[in-house]
Write a structure and sequence with these properties.
Blueprint (H helix, E strand, L loop, with lengths): L2 E6 L3 H13 L2 E7 L3 H9 L5 E2 L2 H6 L3 E4 L3 H15 L5 E4 L5 H8 L7 E6 L20 E5 L6 H12 L4 E5 L1 H29 L3 H7 L2 H7 L6 H10 L1 H23 L3 H12 L7
Parallel strand pairs: 1-2, 1-4, 2-3, 4-5, 5-6, 7-8
Antiparallel strand pairs: 6-7
Helix pairs in contact: 4-5, 7-11
Length: 283
């Protein structure tokens, strides 16, 4: 299969998609849409697309349109793009980390069947077109949400695109997807941001942070380098499930605080032993 593809948003995800699609030969031609002049310059320098056009021009020349901008931007662009592809064989998909909002936008449009909601479970703490890498998606999991609401040929094309990276496809309801990612992805970013702020607030000497930071700190705080432009709309867009997770996290933190304050070593051991069971899942 060799389809022409439009990618809107040539950052980490969009740029890595472009690089990976070139490697596996899935696409014939890649057209980029990037409104950030600095990002566009870098994306052009790195050759992430064959050409950069306006959204309307890019959609007209493409078989698959991939929304890879921040999730709030994707929601804003989707109705306009569905207007353009209505009555054609063109397909629209998105790569966003939240799905309920964009599913609601799509469901209100008469061309809903041309849209496939997708979430490749891949990424890094870096952002922008300079962070784009080869094979970011290879052998990872991809979630397709509400597949029954997409027309069969649209679903087949997006599935084929994801499987060109040897991704493992799973299906979810968009609401359930957002609940699950709040626990396994979004809370990890919030705790990393919070830890970084805590350290920066209490430790004013950058040299001490560098000299005393061990592997555990580095791995835990790594996600704090993620882009606020990307993650702020994810957090607000998934507020309901995420607030519930934050409350649960605070409850666990207060347990640790209580047992440390009262020198209750046995309760601490039991708490940590319970946490160790995650190792049976994440082997």
């Amino acid at each position: 299969m060799s389809l022409n593809i439009c990618i809107t948003g040539m950052g980490l995800i969009g740029g890595s998609l472009a690089r990976s699609l070139r490697l596996n030969g899935f696409t014939g031609r890649i057209t980029g849409v990037e409104v950030n002049p600095h990002h566009c310059t870098i994306a052009k320098y790195r050759g992430l697309a064959d050409e950069f056009l306006t959204l309307e021009e890019a959609v007209a020349k493409s078989d698959i349109i991939i929304l890879a901008a921040p999730v709030d931007v994707n929601c804003r662009l989707l109705p306009e793009i569905l207007d353009m592809v209505a009555g054609t064989g063109k397909v629209v998909t998105d790569m966003g980390s939240t799905k309920a909002d964009i599913a609601a936008v799509a469901d209100s449009h008469p061309a809903r069947g041309r849209f496939v909601a997708a979430h490749p479970m891949a990424g890094t703490e870096h952002s922008g077109p300079a962070a784009a890498v080869d094979r970011l998606f290879n052998d990872r999991v991809a979630i397709i949400c509400d597949p029954d609401r997409s027309e069969e040929d649209a679903l087949e094309k997006v599935t084929a695109l994801l499987q060109s990276f040897n991704m493992k496809i799973q299906y979810m309801d968009s609401q359930q997807h957002d609940i699950h990612v709040a626990y396994v992805s979004h809370i990890s970013h919030i705790t990393s941001f919070a830890l970084a702020l805590c350290v920066l607030d209490k430790e004013k000497d950058a040299a001490n942070i560098l000299s005393l930071a061990a592997g555990g700190f580095e791995s835990t705080v790594r996600l704090a380098k993620s882009s606020g432009e990307t993650w702020a709309p994810i957090f607000t867009g998934n507020a309901g499930p995420l607030l519930e997770v934050i409350d649960t996290y605070i409850d666990k933190m207060l347990l640790f605080r209580q047992y440390i304050e009262t020198s209750n070593s046995e309760a601490l051991r039991q708490l940590m032993n319970s946490a160790n069971s995650i190792g049976k899942i994440l082997k």
